[in-house]
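Sequence in, structure out.
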Amino acid sequence: MARHFNRKLKLHGFNNLTKSLSFNIYDICYAKKPRHRREYIEYIDEEYNAERLTNILTDVANIIGANILNIAHQDYDPQGASVTMLISEEPVAAEELSNTEAPGPLPETVLAHLDKSHITVHTYPESDPDSGISTFRADIDVSTCGRISPLKALNYLIHSFESDIVIMDYRVRGFTRDVRGKKLFIDHKINSIQNYLSRDTRERYQMVDVNVYQENIFHTKMMLKQFDLDNYLFGTGSEDITDAEAKSIREHLEREMYEIFYGRNITRGMKP
């Protein structure tokens, strides 16, 4: 559905639209022995502990042009971590704000600005004792109230995590009014979340959209197109396994990815 927006909308009072970006990031590996699985969980807990996550979300707050009001963070026993930030609008010159349907900055170039509300992240490491597959999931929510969309933080966040699967939802809620009193239920053009991702990301992942334009709901799923088995062996190298073992491990990894991507269990040997 085509939509057209003036470059500068003249609103009556504050922009009351709420824009919410929620997504799950999955990192998958094969840990052959129980001690390898424990070491993987320990590695994830260290790599994505509350302090590191706080630093990532602080960068996100900078991207979206916000003042951090409060931070709550917690490392959990035996595993996992959470961070929640309450943020408020920072006075940023209007010309610095960009709502165009284009990728936001990468981790090494945090320059853009958005708006305000809250940011949260929760992590969930887990493992399958039978197959040796271990999975790390991070749930991230970025919600802003105002003119700018949190989608500008998406490119940075995806590059901040090792992501085999990414499942994203974006929704614009409520309405605001222009100076003539007309209700606006969305204030920026968007055809797909994919347009906010960098080219290298779009080339590396298989992507599927399920969008409900009339409800301002956008859903995108991403899965790596191909992977190097050596990058998925935790505590084991490819030289330590036979060709038959390598084939079996690859099948387990692929099935895990397919099941997460399609949201259903798949019988061994079957394709979705």
